[in-house]
Structure prediction request, 182 residues.
Amino acid sequence: MRILLTFLVTLFASSQAFAAAYVAPVVAFAPISEYVEVTAGNTWWKPIPVGQGDQLRATVYVYNKVYDDVDAYICSETDLRRYNAGQRNRCQGVNRGKRQFQFQYTVRSPERHYFVVNNSFSMMVKKKVNFSLEIAKQLDEQKRQTIEKQLMGFSNQIQKTFDVQEFDIHLKPCGTQNAYTG
Prediction:
């Protein structure tokens, strides 16, 4: 959404209209970032806003100077229940990752998903962890068409208001956070 708003402000500031709009099927969102302290012998989890087909990249940093290892996973709701019950599950991530590590995950089910930090193997040491999740969301065809129609509506309004040259708009991720073009 931030990308769309930045684009619209740039569009109005430039006083130019556009002839066509294209919205990519994948849109990258600003990362979720959070600091958490997980006490010895415990597991912490948080729901994350993802949908089927979304791609995530998790970056985990453990601040402890000596015991700087932790487990980090992404689990569907079903697999989190199984994980908590000590049953076989399909959570994905890193076991005993040290200091700083990354992993990727593709959401394969429509269930709610969770980011999990496990410190259950520690007997006495609280783990201080910062994590960030970069999410690339899949847009279905209906959402893409809706956004494209909205952009074309803005184009019509601008063409009615200003005498400007037409240009095409392509909304797609470029791989760089907070990037823009003039």
Q: What stands out?
A: The CA atoms of residues 7 and 180 lie 8 Å apart.
